[in-house]
Input
Amino acid sequence: MTTDSYTITERTIKEPPVSFGQQLKFLGPGFILSASIVGSGELIATTILGATAGFIAFWVIIVSCLIKVAVQLEFGKQAILTGETVMNLFNKLPGRRFGKAGWAVWTVGILTTLKIVQLGGMIGGSAIVLKMLFDGLPLYLYLILLVIVTAALIHGGYYKAVEKISLVMVVAFTITTIIALIVLRYTPFSFSWTDVASGLQFSLPSAYVAVAFGAFGITGVASDEIIAYNYWCIEKGYAAYTGPRDDSDEWKKRAKGWIRVMYLDAIVAMIIYTSVTAAFYLLGAAILHGKTIIPQGNGVIEAISFIYTQSLGEGAKLVYLIGAFFVLFSSVFATLAAWTRLFPDIFGQVGWINFFDKAQRKKTVRWLSWIIPSAWALMYFFINLPVLMILSGGIVGSVLLFVVVFAAIHFYKNRVRYLASGSFYSVAFVMSVLSIISVGLYGLIQLFSN
Output
């Protein structure tokens, strides 16, 4: 599309594909989401939960991956139907305003800023992997290198580049992890279906609540990824292809067609990240829990490498490290791509910039593409505890989910009747909302009562 992706005119209209094969050609937002999702949550938070609790908490990971999708779809629908950015939508939510922006915009801005700690742990983990692969330089030099590379990749802010790089990373870490899980069956750490079933009993000892709560907030499609999905759907062209809203029969037909494409995109992404997340958890439970190895501090990557060396042999450590780098760096890369959309959008809502001035937005993106990863690196320098940093981000993300759920309910209730959801989607949406609220409240209560 030659026009600005945030501009919707009659010239951007494109009829939605009907056949499954043609629909596959328009997938993309889900790949970026998967690159962001399958990162620190899966490699570190999920593995630590498996190492700590064994198979018993497997259900937490599965539920975390499945129950948030309906809320994500609601954000995707709003992007297609309105063509509005997510912070513009949040600024219309009912509630108190502070200056030009509503409470939801400020809350997202503040909580996302707090997640700098989490991203510091993620970029620090990526630097640790690089040092293990190419030892010889101080860790801080690898960290600086990652800041430069990440910023350079995002500097231009082009959607197609983000999508293609994300797809490469998703394929790399998915293949590596699934192979490790399959080969595990032929080692002393093999597990049975009975072991897996024991982790689907929906019980959780209080000793594991804090780690499980952090993992719940950071695995699957997390709050910040649900928010980011709006930008990726718009930039992919779903909203522009639907065209300016005129409520005509033609527009309704196009909207429904592109929503179906978005559904497929979200489902494919869910299959990818649920499979990889489950694989990481089972590997951690089978190998690390049995060996009572709980990854801590800067030794987290070395400890987790035990998963691969025990399932694939000592020669697989190199393969593991390459896969681990793609897993961690994919999250850093995709998160920076999302934040360089989110923060300019927030700045626009509070009146600091004109988000829809393409030149001004581009300038802001370029500045942020360097400032944000530098802040992540500085955070790692000061704290230097990647596991704690990443899990803290999971807790912040769980709190942010409440804001996301509030917005999703508002979108769902106020959507036009002729685009009303079917009964299956409605039930899934209600279950998603209730599950997120229930698990979130339970986790907060348990976390602060222990």
